Amino acid sequence: MKYINKVMARKTAVVCITVLAVFGTTVNAAAVTSAGTSTEYMTTHTIQQNSSALIALGQSSVFVYNTLNTGVKQKGVYYSYNPSSDIMKMQFTGDSSGMESVLLDKNVRSELRAAYDQYLKDFSGHSLKEEIKNTDNIYGAVNSMYRWGQANTSVRTRIKTEAGYNFVKGNPYFTLTLYESTYSPDDSQSGRRTILLTKQQAADLVGYADEEKLTASSLPVTRSVTADVY
Question: Could you point out which of 48, 85, 91, 175 has its C-alpha 20 to 30 Å from the C-alpha of 63?
C-alpha cells in the first residue's frame, strides 16, 4: 500500500506538470517534490496585452469655463491609451452629459511636453503676463483630434490645438485651446473650447503622456505564481 501511495504521488506531480504545460505555463522543475508529502512548484505566466484595446492609464481633473464664461468649473478626466493607433485619450463629461475627448498622437504629446516645460520656466521665473497681448501666452499649436457627444452619436473632427496659459481671477492656468468652426454646443465660446490645468493637473497630463510609460503599458506582463502548499 505504501508503494502504491508513492507511485500515485509521483503521478500526481506529473499530471500537474503536464496540465500546466498545456496552458503555456513554465514550471520550475527543481521545485517539484513528491516525497509522500505536499507537492510544491513555482509557475510563471505571460499576459499578452490586447493591442486593439484601450489601456487605462489613470485619472485626474481639469477645469473648463462655466456657461457664462465668468469663471471655471472642475471636471474629472480619465486618461487611456490605444497601442494600435498610438493615441492617448483624455476624456471628461460635457455639460449635456455627453462625453468629450481630446485625442493626442505622438506629435501632439511631444509639443505638449515642450509647452509644459516652458510654462514651468515662465511660472518659476515670474514671466507669465496677466495682461495678454496678441499671442504672448501661446507656446505652440498642433492639430489634434476631438470627439464629443453620446457614445453612439459622437462627432469626431481634427482641430487646431494651442498650448499656452491664461489667468482666471488672478490665478494662472496651463491651457489647451481647441478651435473648430462648428463645435460642441456645450461651449459658450463660439468655435473654441479651452481646457485649463493647474501645475499639478498639467503634471498629471504630461506624466501620462510620457512615451516610455506608454510603451511599457502595452508590453506583455510576466508574473510568477507559487502554488499553495497543503
Answer: 85
| Total Cβ atoms within 10 A of residue 98 | 18
CA separation for the pair 32, 16 (Å, rounded): 10
pLDDT number for residue 30: 42
* pTM for this predicted structure: 0.68
For residue range 195-227, list pLDDT tens digits in order.
999 999 999 999 999 999 998 887 765 667 777
- Quote the CA–CA distance of 40 and 106 in Å, as a whole number: 47
Q: What are phi and psi of 22, to 5 degrees?
A: -60, -35
CA-to-CA distance for 46 and 150, rounded, in angstroms? 36
The pLDDT confidence band at residue 76, using thresholds 50, 70 and 90, is very high
First-to-last C-alpha distance (Å) of the chain: 22
- Provide DSSP, 67-96: TTSSSEEEEEEEEEEETTTTEEEEEEE-TT
Q: Cell digits for 92?
A: 471628461
